[in-house]
Amino acid sequence: MDFLDRFGLTVPLVQAPMAGVSTPEMASEVSETGALGSIGVGATDADGAAEMIATVRARTARPFNVNFFVHATPQADAQRETAWLTALAPVFAEFDAEPPAQLRTIYTSFADDPAMVRMLLALRPPIVSFHFGLPDPAVIAALRQAGIFLLATATSLAEAKRAHDAGIDAIVAQGIEAGGHRGIFDPDSPDDALGTMALTRLLVRDLEQPVIAAGGIMDGAGIASARALGAVAAQLGTAFIACPESAADDAYRAALMSSAAHHSRMTRSISGRPARALANRFTALETRLSGATPPDYPRAYDAGKALNAAAKANGEAGFGAQWAGQGAPLARAMPAAKLVAQLRDEFMAAINR
Fold this sequence. Notes:
By secondary structure, the protein is of the alpha/beta class. It has helices at 3-6, 24-32, 46-59, 78-93, 114-123, 137-145, 157-166, 196-206, 220-228, 250-256, 299-313, 336-351, and strands spanning 13-15, 37-40, 64-69, 127-131, 149-154, 170-174, 180-181, 211-214, 233-236, 265-267, 275-277.
């Protein structure tokens, strides 16, 4: 069955999960309008994820996606972490603050969280997606047996083939243009940094599964282009940041609508994994911190969040994790349902041109 028909989508659009930005309110509005809404639960535990799923289900009976981070188990490294905190100390000092005495693993990987697996098997959301890697084969088999449709992000053909072999139902082809965390399985391995167009075509040519194009797509014409490349749908994240239903704060929204949108940067300094963000004071630290190696994700993120909190307490909003893709200058501020309707109109106009 066609991906769109299977989930009753009237527009080939998937709203990106965006942990920390997407909300149950946004996901339900997107799904209610005929696209596929998503929530990202990588920053919460099983109880928090269950509550978010329940909130979406209370607002819509339509399908939605629940996204999980499957990063490698972070390793504490006292020498590396001390060097990192020492390098950040002068920046903390600007705000009369000190870096944390030690770093914590603030998010648990899905691969290390059996409570999340039990929750999914109990609640059975219609779609589950994975970022940063793949779960254990037994977990994938159990989720599929429960009738859950599985997505996984791939940044290369090799990663996509691993997802194929593992039994993933559809692949999200994340181009280098995409905002937020890059889904590369091993952040320390060479990255060919394939763009959305090239990666989508490679995956469509060589895989049997449906492919969803992600990265730099902001309007209906972009969705039409993804479909022309052979993708069943396009995944948009940055396009939804300015929606009132998103959890983005005022500073994030203002930055998205500023000249910073024209200068997104790939950085590991904020969280410890490569991620694309709006140019701000934190991304500008990349050169200054180049002599130190970031701790493992998400332990580095513990320091990044502490720095942002210290800066915000002193009226400085330039140290936030303001994730956004290269299409950020095309962002529009409007309710999620209205945005989906406009994207549908633009898509139809593009394919009927």
